Amino acid sequence: MMEMKKASVLLLFMLYVECVMTFAWAQDNSPSRYQVGVCDWMVLKRQKLGEFELAKQLGCDGIEMDMGSLGQREMFDNKIRDPQEAAIFKRTADSLGIKVGAVAMSGFYAQDLTKRDNYLALAEDCFDTMDKVGNVEVAFLPLGGCGNDWHTDKAKRASIVKRLHDIGEAAKSRGKRVGIDTPLDAKGNLKLLKEINSEGIAIFYKFQTIVENGWDICKDLKKLGGKNICAIHASNTDRVWLRNDSLIDMPAIKQTLDQMGWSGWLFVERSRDVKMVRNVKMNYGNNVRYLKETFNFYPTPDIVLDSIGREPSYVNTIIGRAQKATDELGITWTPMGQNVQNIIANRYFKLNDIYAERDSIKKSDKQLADALCDSKLYRSHFGFDADLSTYLNPQEIERVKDVMTFHVVKVTYDAQCDMIPTLKEEEKAQILTWLKEARELAIDAESSKKKHEVFGKYKGRINNYLSKRGYDLNKEREEWYKRVKARGGEL
């Protein structure tokens, strides 16, 4: 009797420990629990070495690498089949700290699995690639190319089930899982998985499918169960960014996945803003950031915003002004963009402080005030370039300066060249040099009016230079007006 009591106590203790561990797992919010990536074929980097650097810029933990297009080929257009290419890809990914979270056979979005007799060879090619780029455990296999009615067509369904069973068993033998993308809800997917009967096949869950059918994502996830989901395409169709998508309650989804004890990769496939659908960095940077803000802690910027003690409305105005530059570069929603934005905003704050001090001292000593102001502007000017160069190349820094000075350099230079088509190359070069010199001074000016005044002085210098070179500016301007008017434009 005593032994039975001991056994009962031990069993209860073990159940208690299991419950505590399960609860702790469900409450775990460590960065490794959820990992966020993008699909390389959607960010226009399908099997391109630059996908890793782009993923780093977007703030991703990794990427979903595609096997390459299929089309009418017998095999995927797969670069990683070459051992040297594979080694370069692996080395680049490791050097940047970017993982390959999954390998996709996206060619089957268009190709019919039931019409590919070499389906096992294609799957093995995928598994080989997964090994070469980092022992990846999850593959993606869409069934879109099988048509819209395969799940109700008994003969076609049987063929798909047979092939998926074969693929699943091959995957299992190599320690991998193939996630299939179906048009079914949880009930339909559970039935399909039972028919396939292979631990090597799971569901590569897709929010878009659930939303388009009007189903509830959280309820569907719970019914399907975490063990049947190997990865998630955590995006909707192209319309708006995820943070603006009223059809996806991401915090509720996160809570559901927590409760299910699920962990794994969340990949952004779509959810691009249709107003800027080609802007890869803005679209995917925004979506990656939103997922990381929701599922994990988004990394704190290296550059701290110097906003303490400043009026909140003023700070917001300056941030908005700085964001115009990062919008121009398409990096606003990336970690790099956050740092660049803070550098620019801090420059505006610094200028404000310098001019405020000047105005305060000017009341008692104007000469001293101006001297101190000029000294501080000069000393801090080059530091701005140095700070930006940590994140941007010289061409990008120039674009930032152009935004901060209302693109006057380009507007003025283009106008001069259009007004005087006969300008020599050395004359164009001199004009551009002076305009860029003006830009350096205008960046530090205290207001938009003062910035334009700086450019005004240099425009006068340019006019004097051109006059000395023999150009009749009044005549050139009159002829220019006529040409512009003739082509339907205005000045």
Question: What does this 3D model show about the protein?
Answer:
This protein is an alpha/beta fold. The protein has 18 helices and 8 strands. It has an 8-stranded parallel β-barrel, surrounded by 5 helices.
Give a concise summary.
This protein is an alpha/beta fold and about 500 residues long. The protein is built from 18 helices and 8 strands. It has an 8-stranded parallel β-barrel with strand order 1-2-3-4-5-6-7-8, surrounded by 5 helices.
Any chance you could write out the topology, listing elements then pairs?
Blueprint: H1 2-27, E1 34-39, H2 50-58, E2 62-66, H3 83-96, E3 99-104, H4 119-132, E4 138-142, H5 154-173, E5 177-181, H6 186-196, E6 201-206, H7 207-212, H8 217-224, E7 229-233, H9 250-260, E8 264-268, H10 280-295, H11 312-329, H12 335-362, H13 366-389, H14 394-404, H15 408-419, H16 425-443, H17 448-468, H18 473-486
Parallel strand pairs: 1-2, 1-8, 2-3, 3-4, 4-5, 5-6, 6-7, 7-8
Helix pairs in contact: 1-9, 4-5, 6-8, 8-9, 11-12, 11-14, 12-13, 15-16, 16-17
